[in-house]
């Protein structure tokens, strides 16, 4: 390709000149091509890889040089000799003569550079090449990545890094390529190549490791191997990116959220590093925005625009506090350098004219003040006018205890003073004093307001006015699985509280839960949501409770309430790690008893609301909304620590749970103004001595003192590690459940089923990565909430790929494999949804690999008995289009006509006793299709000739059976015709004495044989390379030549199997008879090429014949055949006849009874399907593949 001219200092270094003229030089890189170059070539190749040279991608180049100059300019490079030669010839034909006219060398240089740049501009214009943000160096890396690993354009490269890969005890220096779906490594050292390809979705562990030998290394673990990479220039950047990409992969497995690139990123700046991609900047910006939203509890769609160092003037202590200022589309935020000193959130919707504002914020020491002011002004123009959010505060609950009322009053005063000094609402200065007030307890009448504020729910509520009402209205009267579960749990939600002992409270709870289920169908409804929501409704209005639930489920407790409670399982793993670190003496004991997994789920899912007295648990919720999940971890560790001696003495998990249950029941809140509420958990405990009361505020304070060092960012790191483990464990559990479900239905071993499941799942994931070509969206049909067997399903295009790799009947010729795969898929698709699950897939494969002869033939028979008429559709690789691909063919023939048959067959497989007599008969059109399938199946088989001989014999026999069967089926009709036309009867019926009159049916077949034979010729195999002459010589041989006729006896009765096999005229290219005495009712097929697919469409009207045809001599090779409008609809054979005929031919019996090497096929499929296409594996390659 032409490139923008770049200066080259040394033209001869590491390059070989192949052509030259006064102005241009064509060069080839040393060591490239034909494995030549000796030691120098090996060294050059190694240097190219280690130094990331452009020559890896383009080993040919053209240089421009004026005769008297030592400076060279590269103007073109190419991947192949053909490409570079085309450029060279164009230069010689179009530029050499022109350049000789110039006198000034500078003018020549300017002209050449301008001409090349003009060619590039014209090419970009004609080919609609859009400018992108990737640098030239990165574009080279993308080309290298795709070339080395066979990746399609849909696989986006994010970044690549130089590193060493430890294969055994030897490090291999090379390049690590990180794409959206794969981690790849390539190394070339002195002639030895090493490749590694791993899916992110297959990684079970990703961690930085530090040893004496490898101080900075990254260990990547899959289910089958561990891989260690080291010697990174910037290991922290690399590891963060790897974490992020692994997280995206886990998210795809979890809830099927695909990766979408953010197109709204700012353009590249001039000082951007050479090796950077727009995708990498996108991911970096995404990671920063996620941390920003988590830090300030902002809505999920908020994007960070930038941040800068500054100081904030705090009026409450009259100081300038050093920290960071963050600016996003709708917010300005600040956090102090010292973490807990001060933080601030300013919604731009609250910003108005400064003089009229209630609060003024002063930021100083800004590095780029003018730019920052301009950005804030731009955002303010996009922001709607201020939305006033006023909340009516409810009065305190009356209590007879004057001391409790006095404490509550003092709390309220403390908070009012704090609000006066530090500000009210979203713009409050949040300091260490705010935290202290929260730990002492929020007043009852302020709890709902402060929960909204600290959780960030107030922002989403203020920016979505009327959203909740619309959602309630839309969800009214709608019923689904989520609403049924909600109705079942409504009366189990704090049943001991008076507010939920009447229909008003129950109705409000129903509306909130149903509205959320409709907002987020991925979660819908999960048990424990009812308990949390009922508590939210006690302190907040209905709409406020809804937005608090949104904040809880989508931001503060991510993935907690989906169908598999993944978030809670992740945090359970984090809790185990924290317990190992902070209470090591107790950890081993708890692991042996299996208590941690039990307690963590019940404690975390309900925020202790289900295990503590209500008035104490709400204090935990206060702290949770302010500090987040770290409070729950701290409190859980504190409870374990307080009971360490009793737990160490526990003999079993029941005793340990009793100890913890009694302790939590004794946690009290003496400052509560609420009337005592019976606690459901306490009613279920034993009748032993109650545990001494534990004050909730002391417990919370103690948890901060002992375990307050736990940081939120450390928890996020632990969550990532555990998320990999949990999701892969869930995937493994799914695989085991699927295998266990179907292992009794098939002869495959458990190990083989697991391997096949991995291949089946990988095919689905590959289509999700790179998109399907069949018109169905793979991401829409992967739903982790479905039953195990339905979670992964494949369509026709994906089945076709697996069919060619795993199914023994798949012909080597791809054009022949397509129609067979189509028929097979149609048969396996029992419910007619154009998708098959793993059970359906295995049911078909099992018959082919482990079924007996009868089962295999029955399957083959069923594949062709679906109603329809044979039509020919060209299906070539070069002519394939979105409208003409295999999926669209399936869609055209996918009509309800055959679903009755599929249901019948499905019932037959369930009963395991399929009655042969219940199978529909095969008509003439279907029989012809069956014959074609047999010929295609035997293509390039070792016993190809013998199989074609046997097939021709069986076909002739079945044709005769169909004729005889038709005579008996229609004897009554023919008798009536005898009375009307006795002469016709004489020429049409066999004699009563068992002989055949001269005008009998077999004689008529002989007369029409020429036409029938020529019509049926396409059913045989098409021309193959190297056999064209043989085919041409035998093209006009007729079927009757191979089976001598007798006027009195059927040919099928006279000729023996041995005679048929010995007859030299019956070659593999013999053709089939149409097999009908009604000579007009024939199936007409054009000559069919190797790349033709035969599919079915609706039946055409049946046309009658008008008398006998002539014998019909040889026809031309171009298919100049007589046309026929219909087939003989009365001709039919049964499965018993088909089976009996096949059993007469030993070659066919041996073929269908041939054992299948399942393990070898699976291994081959795994090697081919690693990255969705074949990888080169020359003898000197060292290819490592994982996952």
From TrEMBL:
Domain EF-hand: 816-851
Disordered as annotated region, ranges: 973-1082, 1096-1124
Identification of the protein by name: TBC1 domain family member 9
CDD domains named in the record: PH-GRAM1_TCB1D9_TCB1D9B, PH-GRAM2_TCB1D9_TCB1D9B
Keyword flag Repeat: yes
Keywords, ordered alphabetically: GTPase activation, Repeat
Highest taxon of source: Eukaryota
Biased composition (Basic and acidic residues): 1035-1044
Gene: LOC112232053
Limits of the Rab-GAP TBC domain: 441-628
Species assigned in the record: Oncorhynchus tshawytscha (Chinook salmon)
Bias (Low complexity): 1065-1076
């Amino acid at each position: 390709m032409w490139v923008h001219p770049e200066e080259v200092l040394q033209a001869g270094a590491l390059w070989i000149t192949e052509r030259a003229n006064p102005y241009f030089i064509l060069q080839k890189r040393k060591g490239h091509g034909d494995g030549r170059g000796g030691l120098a070539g090996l060294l050059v190749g190694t240097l190219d890889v280690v130094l990331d040279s452009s020559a890896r991608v383009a080993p040919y180049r053209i240089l421009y040089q004026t005769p008297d100059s030592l400076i060279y300019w590269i103007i073109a490079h190419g991947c192949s000799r053909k490409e570079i030669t085309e450029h060279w010839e164009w230069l010689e034909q179009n530029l050499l003569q022109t350049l000789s006219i110039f006198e000034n060398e500078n003018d020549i240089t300017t002209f050449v550079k301008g001409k090349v740049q003009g060619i590039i501009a014209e090419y970009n214009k004609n080919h609609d090449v859009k400018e992108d943000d990737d640098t030239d160096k990165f574009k080279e890396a993308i080309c290298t990545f795709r070339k080395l690993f066979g990746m399609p354009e849909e696989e986006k490269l994010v970044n690549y890094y130089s590193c060493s890969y430890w294969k055994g005890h030897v490090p291999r220096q090379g390049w690590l390529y990180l794409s959206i779906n794969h981690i790849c490594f390539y190394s070339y050292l002195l002639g030895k190549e090493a490749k590694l390809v791993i899916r992110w979705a297959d990684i079970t562990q990703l961690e930085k490791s530090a040893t004496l030998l490898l101080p900075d290394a990254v260990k990547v673990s899959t289910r089958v191997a561990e891989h260690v990479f080291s010697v990174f220039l910037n290991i922290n950047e690399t590891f963060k990116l790897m974490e992020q990409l692994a997280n995206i992969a886990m998210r795809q497995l979890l809830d099927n959220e695909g990766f979408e690139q953010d197109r709204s990123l700012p353009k590249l700046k001039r000082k951007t590093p050479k090796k950077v991609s727009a995708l990498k900047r996108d991911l970096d910006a995404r990671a920063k925005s996620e941390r920003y939203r988590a830090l300030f509890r902002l809505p999920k769609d908020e994007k960070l625009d930038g941040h800068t160092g500054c100081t904030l003037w705090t009026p409450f202590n009259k100081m300038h506090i050093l920290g960071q200022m963050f600016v996003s589309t709708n917010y300005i935020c600040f956090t102090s350098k010292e973490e807990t000193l001060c933080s601030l959130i300013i919604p731009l919707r609250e910003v108005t004219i400064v003089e009229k504002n209630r609060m003024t914020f002063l930021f100083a020491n800004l590095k780029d003040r003018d730019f920052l002011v301009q950005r804030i002004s731009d955002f303010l123009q996009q922001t709607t006018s201020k939305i006033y959010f006023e909340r009516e505060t409810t009065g305190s609950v009356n209590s007879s205890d004057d001391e409790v009322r006095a404490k509550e009053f003092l709390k309220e005063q403390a908070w009012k003073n704090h609000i006066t000094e530090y500000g009210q609402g979203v713009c409050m200065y949040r300091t260490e004093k705010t935290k202290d007030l929260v730990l002492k307890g929020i007043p009852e009448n302020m709890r709902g307001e402060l929960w909204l504020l600290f959780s960030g729910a107030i922002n989403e509520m203020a920016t979505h006015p009327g959203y909740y009402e619309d959602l309630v209205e839309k969800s009214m009267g709608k019923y689904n699985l989520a609403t049924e579960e909600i109705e079942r749990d409504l009366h189990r939600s704090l049943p001991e509280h008076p507010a939920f002992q009447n229909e008003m409270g129950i109705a409000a709870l129903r509306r909130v839960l149903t509205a959320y289920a409709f907002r987020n169908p991925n979660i819908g409804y999960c048990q424990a949501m009812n308990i949390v929501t009922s508590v939210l409704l006690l302190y907040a209005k209905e709409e406020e409770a809804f937005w608090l639930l949104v904040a809880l489920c989508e931001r503060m407790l991510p993935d907690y309430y989906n169908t598999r409670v993944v978030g809670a399982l992740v945090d359970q793993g984090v809790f185990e790690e924290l317990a190992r670190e902070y209470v090591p003496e107790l950890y081993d004991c708890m692991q042996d008893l299996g208590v941690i997994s039990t307690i963590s789920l019940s404690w975390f899912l309900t925020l202790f609301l289900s295990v503590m007295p209500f008035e104490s648990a709400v204090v935990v919720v206060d702290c949770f909304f302010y500090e987040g999940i770290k409070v729950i971890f701290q409190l859980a560790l504190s409870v374990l620590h307080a009971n360490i001696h009793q737990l160490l003495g526990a003999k079993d998990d029941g005793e340990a749970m009793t100890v913890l249950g009694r302790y939590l029941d004794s946690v009290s809140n003496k400052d509560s103004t609420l009337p005592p509420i019976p606690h459901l958990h306490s009613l279920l405990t034993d009748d032993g001595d109650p545990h001494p009361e534990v004050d909730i505020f002391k417990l919370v304070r103690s948890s901060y003192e002992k375990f307050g060092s736990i940081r939120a960012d450390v928890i996020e790191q632990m969550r990532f590690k555990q998320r990999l483990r949990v999701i892969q464990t869930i995937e493994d559990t799914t695989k085991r459940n699927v295998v266990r479900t179907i292992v009794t239905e098939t002869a495959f071993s458990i190990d083989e089923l697991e391997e096949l499941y991995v291949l089946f799942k990988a095919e689905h994931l590959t289509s999700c990565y790179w998109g399907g070509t069949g018109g169905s969206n793979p991401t829409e049909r992967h739903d982790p909430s479905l039953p195990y067997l339905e979670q992964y399903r494949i369509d026709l295009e994906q089945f076709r790929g697996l069919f060619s790799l795993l199914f023994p009947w798949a012909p080597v010729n791809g054009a022949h494999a397509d129609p067979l795969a189509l028929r097979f898929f149609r048969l396996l698709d029992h419910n007619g949804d154009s998708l098959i699950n793993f059970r359906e897939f295995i049911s078909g494969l099992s018959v082919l690999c482990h079924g007996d002869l009868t089962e295999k033939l029955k399957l083959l028979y069923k594949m062709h008995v679906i109603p329809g008429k044979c039509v020919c559709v060209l299906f070539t690789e070069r002519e394939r289009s979105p409208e003409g691909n295999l999926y669209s063919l399936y869609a055209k023939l996918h009509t309800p006509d055959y679903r009755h048959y599929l249901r019948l067959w499905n019932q037959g497989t369930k009963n395991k006793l399929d009655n042969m007599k219940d199978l529909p008969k095969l008509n003439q059109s279907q029989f012809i299709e069956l014959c074609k399938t047999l010929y295609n199946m035997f293509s390039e088989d070792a016993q190809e000739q013998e199989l074609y001989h046997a097939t021709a014999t069986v076909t002739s026999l079945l044709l005769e059976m169909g004729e005889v069967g038709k005579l008996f089926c229609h004897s009554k009709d023919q008798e009536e015709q005898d009375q009307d036309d006795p002469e016709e009867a004489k020429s049409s019926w066999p004699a009563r004495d068992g002989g055949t009159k001269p005008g009998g049916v077999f004689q008529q077949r002989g007369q029409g044989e020429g036409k029938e034979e020529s019509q049926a010729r396409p059913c045989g195999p098409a021309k193959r390379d190297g056999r064209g002459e043989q085919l041409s010589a035998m093209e006009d041989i007729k079927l009757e030549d191979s089976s001598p006729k007798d006027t009195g006896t059927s040919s099928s009765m006279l000729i023996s199997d041995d005679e048929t096999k010995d007859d030299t005229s019956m070659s593999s290219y013999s053709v089939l008879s149409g097999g009908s005495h009604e000579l007009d009712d024939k199936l007409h097929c054009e000559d069919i090429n190797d790349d033709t697919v035969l599919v079915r469409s609706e039946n055409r009207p049946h046309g009658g014949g008008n008398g006998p045809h002539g014998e019909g001599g040889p026809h031309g090779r171009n298919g100049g055949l007589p046309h026929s409008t219909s087939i003989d609809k009365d001709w039919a054979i049964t499965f018993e006849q088909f089976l009996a005929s096949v059993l007469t031919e030993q070659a066919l019996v041996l073929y269908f009874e041939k054992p299948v090497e399942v393990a070898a096929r699976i291994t081959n499929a795994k090697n081919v399907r690693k990255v969705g296409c074949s990888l080169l594996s020359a003898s000197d390659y060292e290819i490592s593949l994982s996952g």
